C-alpha cells in the first residue's frame, strides 16, 4: 500500500525548525536562560549518542559513497 504523504520531507523539517526557533526565541525573551542551558546540554548529548552509535564500518573508504560515479 503506497500512501501519499501530506507534506514533503523538506516542509516537515522547516516546520520543526520554525517551532524550535519560536521556542528558543520565547525562552530568550522571557529570560529563561537556565532552561536554555538544559536544552542545549540535552541536545548535545543526543547528538553525541547518535554519532557514537552510528554504523561507520559500512561507510566507503572513499567517503563519497553512492554519490560518486565512475565514468570508466
Q: What can be said about this structure in brief?
A:
The protein has helices spanning 9-29, 33-52. 57% of the residues lie in helices and 0% in strands.
Report on this structure:
The protein is mostly helical and 72 residues long. It has a domain at 9-54. It is 57% helix and 0% strand. The protein has two helices and no strands. The longest helix has 21 residues, at 9-29. It is flat. It starts with 8 loop residues before the first helix and ends in a 20-residue tail after the last helix. The model has no long low-confidence stretch (mean pLDDT 84).
Radius of gyration: 19 Å
Give the topology string: H per helix, E per strand. Answer: HH
Largest sheet: none
**Mean pLDDT score, rounded?**
84
Helix content: 55-70%
Count up the helices: 2
What characteristics describe this protein?
single chain, mainly alpha, flat
Could you give the topology of this structure?
Layout lengths: L8 H21 L3 H20 L20
